[in-house]
What we know:
single chain
Amino acid sequence: MRALPPGSQDALRTLYLLDALDEDGHVTALGRTMSRLPLEPGLARCLLAAQELRCARRPLELHGAQAVVSAWEQRCAEESASLSQGT
Length: 87
């Protein structure tokens, strides 16, 4: 068996903890559903659990707010890099 690239073991452990992989490392039905969502695995799992519990609205609102903050942080980082380069 070949060695995994750095970080892969952590990624596989995370997917296992999210029930996306079984104990043998095979993708579960939940993992297949999560993979169809264009989201990070943790958020995909959160939204699927919220849907199951019939409370999906709040996680969606939180994700929307997080996306806005991320976009703002990205823009600030780009402007800061531009200023430090003198352009």
